[in-house]
Amino acid sequence: SSDAPASEAAGDKKIVMGFAQVGAESGWRSANTQSIQDSAKEAGIDLKFSDAQQKQENQIKAIRSYIQQKVDVIAFSPVVESGWDTVLKEAKDAGIPVILTDRAVDSKDTSLYVTFMGSDFVEEGRRAGDWLVDQYKDATEDVNIVELQGTTGSAPANDRKAGFGEKIAANPHLKIIASQTGDFTRAKGKEVMQAFLKANKDIDVLYAHNDDMALGAIQAIEAAGLKPGVDIKIISIDGVKDGMTAAADGKINYIVECNPLLGPLLMQSAKDLLAGKDLPKRIVTEDGTFTSEQAKEALPNRKY
Ligand code: GYE
């Protein structure tokens, strides 16, 4: 095969990959971590894994330690978009290629990383917005929307907000009356939704940037004596098991999928890269959408 010479040159030496994960904030993240760990094992790649607990400084520390250990390739999912140039330059100077998985950086110098693989978050926000625009196409009164944003400064929070805002602008009745971060966690989603409910008497729609925040918010909505999915329509993003279950139960009305199973693609890309092949600068993964009915159908075969 065409990569035989490269693998011979590498002998039996295992590829060593340093992976700096965001944290364990959500069901999506757990599925993503599992996928990366399982596929490294399957691919025979020696994986060094760290969990940054949603803190950029921890991720930078982890990346520096991978540089020191002279790993063959560094992969990471940046907590936030900004502030990576220095450490990425250090990796580049050390001759260690960097692969971005899941989330993007806003570095102007794109030579600081080899490729960025993951979903198109703006498109996810647009799909959420399209659904809402269609639901309320005949509205004659204002529709009050509250938004639970993901981690402040993260690519998915920035992009999901932007894509959604772009679409709902088509109907001036669709109004975001409150928008705050829930850090992509269930606990924070619940807490912020409680505050939203206290401050606003008439909430029609919740748009949550991930399932976990929607699930936390559902608890707050039920505790307030309201019916999630009925009194307050709910849209979220991800499509993890618990989210899909809530959708199948009619508590979440619409889910835009975001596939966390990036492990196999990452491992194959690392092998290709180290065998001297060129990788595309951007690899976009395919995602679907689910109404309650569709979630019910899909649930039995859902892997995560
Ligand atoms: O949607 C959320 C997670 O970066 C796409 O991070 C990922 C997001 C995902 O915490 O649940």
Explain what the structure shows.
With 304 residues, the chain is of the alpha/beta class. It contains eleven helices and twelve strands. Helix content is 42%, strand content 19%. It is elongated, with a radius of gyration of 21 Å. It binds beta-D-fucofuranose. Beta-D-fucofuranose (GYE) is lined by residues 25-26, 28-29, 102-103, 156, 184, 210, 212, 237-238, 258.
Break the fold down into its secondary structure elements and pairings.
Elements: H1 4-9, E1 16-21, H2 27-43, E2 46-51, H3 56-68, E3 73-76, H4 85-93, E4 98-101, E5 115-118, H5 121-135, E6 143-149, H6 155-168, E7 174-181, H7 186-199, E8 205-208, H8 211-223, E9 233-238, H9 241-248, E10 254-257, H10 263-274, E11 282-284, E12 289-291, H11 292-298
The structure holds beta-D-fucofuranose.
Beta-D-fucofuranose binds next to helix 2 and strand 9.
Pfam family, one: Peripla_BP_4
Keywords: Signal
Family: Belongs to the bacterial solute-binding protein 2 family.
Summarize the structure.
The protein has helices at residues 4-9, 27-43, 56-68, 85-93, 121-135, 155-168, 186-199, 211-223, 241-248, 263-274, 292-298; strands at residues 16-21, 46-51, 73-76, 98-101, 115-118, 143-149, 174-181, 205-208, 233-238, 254-257, 282-284, 289-291. With 304 residues, the chain is α/β, with parallel strands linked by helices.
